[in-house]
Every structure is written in C-alpha cells, then in structure tokens.
Amino acid sequence: MAKKEYMSLQGAFHLAPITNGIAGALRELGNIPEFEIEITANVIEHQESMSGNRTTDFVMTTTTGVNFSGQLEKVNKENMKYILSGENFEIPSASVVDSELGTVVADQSILIGAYNLSTVTIKDSTAAPVTVDPSKYSLDPVFGILKFNDVTGLTMPLTISYTSGAVTQTTIASDLDREYMLFFAGTNTANGDKVAMKLWRTQKSPEATFPLIHEELGKYQIQGRAMSDLSKANDSKLGLYGHLVTIPAVANP
C-alpha cells in the first residue's frame, strides 16, 4: 500500500475569538498531545413487517453534531482563562491603610485577601495605637496568610496596613457562552502532506477537571462542540461545521 494512504498527524492548534459573528486574530494554544473530533448523529430506522424477519429497510439521519476533546499542556494566562471558562482580571498593586482585622484569636490563621505583601504594619486599637511586635505573629507575604501566636496585651480590633503586589486573577466558570473558530495546521508525517482543519464555531464545555497536585507536568482536559455556521450554507465546499484540507507536499526545486 502506498504511504500516501497512511496518516499520522502532528501540528498546532489555534483559536480565534468570535465577536459579532466575525473571527478575530488566531492564538496558538501550544503543545497539545491529544486532540480529536467526534461526529454524532441521531438516526430513525424503519423495520419492515412483511418478510417475517423485521429487517431494517430505511434509515433517516435527523440531526448531526460535531464534538471535540483534547489536552492542553501550555498554561499561559489566555489558556488558563480557556480551561477554566473564566475571565482574566489584572489586579494592580495597591497600598492599604488600617484595614480592620477584627478581634484576633491566637493560633488562628487569617486570609488577608491580597498577595505579595510588603511594608506590613499591624496596630491595635488603644487611644494611641500600638504597633504590634512582629514576634507576636507569623506572615506568609506571598499568599497573605497571617497567624498570631500571642495576643496578650493587645486591644482589639487590630488593623493592618500593607502594599500588595500585582497579580492576574482568573474567574472560574463565569464565561460560558464565548465562541471561537478553531484552526489546525498540521503535517501528515507518514507522507509529508500538510493538513488543515477549520471548525467555524466552537464552544468549550465548562465541564472540566483541573488538577492542583502533580507528580509530572500538568495536562488539562478540554471538550466542547462545534456549531453550524448557516452563512456557509450556500457553498457546499465550506461545510456547515467546517472542513479538512489536504495540501499535497511540494518537492523542493
């Protein structure tokens, strides 16, 4: 059998956000070790009742669908947003003065709600507020976790002043309806041909797992579906869901 008849694909996947029906600029997703599409159909079958064998003599496809699934390895800000079906917010550095901590109990951890803290000062509520000696508490400045080991002699409530660092914050399952065009630019390593695939409209399912503990590099499962683009209905070459293109290898001159 000629090797032209075999296929072993590798390549790059891209997403283009769709706004008002128009696909924007392509963004490459990075290394994807697994990706596949699945074509589904609902079928009505008719069985005849004349032969005594109840054979199927007619089949009609009523609906079709195209699903996709894959794994992402590259986790930059845009991919994180896609995996979590969320939105990215750039939280700037801020200076906070005398934010109330309330009545503090020894050996209880307090989450400040900010990250990469610096210039931290804690005071009590005496008439002339006293700065709390750092020996009375431990602070994880990266995660903003504060724990007092001794509150003896402190007048409650306590207040804290600090400067927080800038962070990127990604919401979870908050952007469920966003659509993307999906484009694959690949190579058939069996014969050197190039292969392109385009799905006009895709929407990722918010159903996902996001491992937080790893023994190896993380892989993040994605899945979703393609939807038809009726604006392509008048040109059968385009396909309502999309199409695959085989680009023959060109010999070097």
Model description:
- With 253 residues, this protein is an all-beta fold.
- It folds into two domains: 9-88 and 171-247; 93-165, no CATH class.
- 3% of the residues lie in helices and 47% in strands.
- It contains one helix and 17 strands.
- Strands 1, 2, 3, 4, 5, 14, 15, 16 and 17 form a nine-stranded antiparallel beta sheet that branches.
Total strand count, please?
Answer: 17
Instruction: Give me the Rg, rounded.
Output: 29 Å
Q: Helix and strand string, N-terminal first?
A: EEEEEHEEEEEEEEEEEE
- In percent, how helical is the residue content? under 10%
What key phrases describe this protein's structure?
253 residues, 2 domains, 1 helix, mainly beta
Structural topology:
Layout lengths: L8 E11 L2 E2 L3 E2 L6 E13 L8 E17 L4 H7 L4 E4 L2 E9 L6 E3 L6 E6 L13 E4 L4 E4 L9 E7 L2 E4 L9 E9 L5 E11 L15 E8 L14 E6 L6
Antiparallel strand pairs: 1-2, 1-3, 1-14, 4-5, 5-16, 6-13, 7-12, 8-11, 9-12, 10-11, 14-15, 15-16, 15-17
Summarize the structure.
With 253 residues, this protein is mostly beta strands.
